[in-house]
Amino acid sequence: MVMKLSKLTICGWILISLLLFLGNTVVAQCIKIDSLEALLVTAQSRQRVDVLNELSVQYRMANNPRVALDFANQAIGLANRLDYQTGLARAWVNEAIVVYAVSPQNKNFQEAIQSFNRALRIHKRQKDNKGMAETYTSYGQFYFDIAYANHTYYDSSVTYLEKAFELLKQSGAEGTPTYSDLAEKLALVYYEK
Question: C-alpha dihedral over 159, 73, 64, 37, to 10 degrees?
Fold first, then answer.
């Protein structure tokens, strides 16, 4: 006996499957945030900066840029007091990514650019090519997100993604997931441009 499924039944199963998948993703995100917040209670010194930075990333991914910005700013303050340059650079990148999302105005756009540049200066001083490549990637993605919304800044996106690509290439990272992801982003920018 062959069972015939109606379009409505098939669509129903697809919808249920999608909701279960997305629900699991949201639950996993909440669990990660809860774990990080619990760790923050006891974290000290550089570990606290790292946890603050990761909380900023997780809240950004959970589409809560105001909280993400608050954690980034806390990380900036603590990393400055500790003179923890790597944590400070990451915090500046986190701030750059979310400050414009909180309020997309020209003032915040300029603040985001300044934050990216602060992170790059730290990585250059430390001769941290990996950190520079990650920052250039975020910088290029930032410009791409703006370009996608209003069809400008594609050239800036290409510039920073190519810089990241070149740094990864020089460091022998060809064939790694990071290198492949970056190549995919660059191809997407060229395609949209």
Answer: 120
